[in-house]
Write a structure and sequence with these properties.
- There is one protein chain.
- 54% of the residues lie in helices and 9% in strands.
- It is mainly alpha-helical.
Length: 233
């Protein structure tokens, strides 16, 4: 237990930190102090997160059953938030995070990686480019918060990361809106898959309407054509 306490204290003390900085500060400081305290005081952090590395953290994330920040009246930190904090402590490399992202087998691992990208990306362009591809993932996630349990789809979860300043009890740095980045020619215009599907449906409907209009016309031409000649025997 003493080692757990030492680990927690290390995470809350940035004196002498010489590792990689994210936007000028130690990575674990990207989560507010009050939330950090709840994380390091949680049972899950002490029992399940101590001693993890990038590989074993992946295994632990595969066991997640819901996303969330803090929950209940006691504001307990969720396992999801604890693992995100552990990733900040480890300073998981971009290449490894990308492997988490493209893994289709474990949806909560993907959600965790998306959350981590939103926290740690260097700029708004990087966030949009790395996360927008997952706006097409419609799988369901369980969500737990102060209001209880609920469901959310991965694409909705990612959209929240791209449009909101606070998700899973965590405040994010201000993201530049996509439209502004498009206006500044930093991003190409994004065509929504839903809009593309609607366009195809509209084209199909137009084709059906043209065919329906042609059929009565063809029938009329047959009626106005030559009458059959009957031969008398």
């Amino acid at each position: 237990m003493a080692s757990h306490r030492a680990d927690a204290k290390y995470m809350l003390d940035d004196r002498g930190y010489t590792g990689h900085l994210i936007r000028g500060q130690a990575p674990y400081l990207l989560i507010e102090e009050a939330v950090r305290n709840r994380i390091t005081n949680s049972y899950y952090w002490k029992e399940q997160c101590f001693g993890l590395n990038a590989a074993t953290l992946c295994d632990r994330a595969a066991e997640l059953t819901y996303v969330g920040g803090t929950y209940n009246s006691g504001q307990r930190a969720s396992p999801f938030l604890c693992l995100a904090f552990k990733m900040l402590q480890l300073g998981v490399e971009k290449e490894i995070v990308d492997e988490y992202l493209i893994n289709d087998d474990f949806k909560y691992l993907r959600a965790l990686a998306c959350f981590y990208v939103r926290l740690t990306a260097e700029d708004s362009v990087e966030v949009h480019k790395r996360l927008e591809g997952y706006l097409e993932d419609s799988r369901k996630l369980r969500r737990r918060g102060n209001q209880g349990w609920g469901l959310i789809h991965i694409d909705e979860f990612v959209d929240n990361l791209l449009t909101k300043d606070r998700v899973c009890g965590t405040s994010f740095w201000k993201l530049v809106p996509r439209q502004q980045l498009e206006d500044e020619d930093k991003l190409d215009e994004r065509v929504s898959p839903v809009a593309h599907m609607l366009e195809e449906e509209n084209e199909a409907s137009s084709t059906d309407e043209r065919e329906l209009q042609q059929k009565p016309q063809q029938g009329k031409e047959l009626q106005q054509g030559s009458k059959p000649q009957w031969k008398l025997q």
